[in-house]
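User: Can you predict the 3D structure of IclR family transcriptional regulator? Sequence below.
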Amino acid sequence: SLFATYASRFDRVENLVSAADPTLQRLSEETGETVNLAMPGPKGVVQVAQVDSTFVLGATNWADVEVPPHCSALGKVMFAYDVIPLPTGRLERRTEKTLGSRKELTDDLDAVRERGFAIVHEEFEIGLDALAAPVFGVEGDVVAAVGISGPTMRIAAHHDRLGELLVDEAGLLSRTLKRKVTHR
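Assistant: Sure. Here are the predicted C-alpha cells for IclR family transcriptional regulator:
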C-alpha cells in the first residue's frame, strides 16, 4: 500500500537522521558552518537534517530553498553516484560560474568521484561555497550526502581540508549504518 511505502520511507529517514546526528554535530563544531544531510527525493535532493552555522553570516535554513541539483554540492554527489537521474536539456545558469553544459557537468562529476567529495564554488549564488560527500548504505549504494555550506570568503581557501573532513565523517557514518543493519 501507499501508506506502507511512505511509512517505511519515513522510518528510513528517521533512522538515518538519528544515526547521522553525531556526524552533523561534529562537523558543525569543527567548521562552524551550516551542515546538511540530504537524501534523494522525487524532485532531486531533499534536505532531511540541518545544524545551523555558528556565524551570523552564512546561516541559511536550506529546508525550503529549491536548489537545482547541478549547482548544489549535495546534488552533485547524488548525480555522481547515479542516485538521481542527470538533467536533460539546458542547465539553469544561476551565476556565471554555474556549470552550463552537460559536458561541464559530467566532467565535474568525474572529479567528484575521483576526489570523493563535491565542490560548489559560487555556482548557486555569488559569495556562497559548499562541499558534500556521499554516505554509503549496506549494499554499497549511496543513500545520502552530508555537506557544509558557507561564505566563499571563509570556505574557498579550505576546500581540500573541508572535503577530507567530510569524506572522513561520511565514511564513519557509512560504517555506522552498516553496523546497525548487521547487528539486528
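Helices lie at 2-31, 73-80, 102-115, 152-155, 159-182. The longest strand covers residues 142-151.
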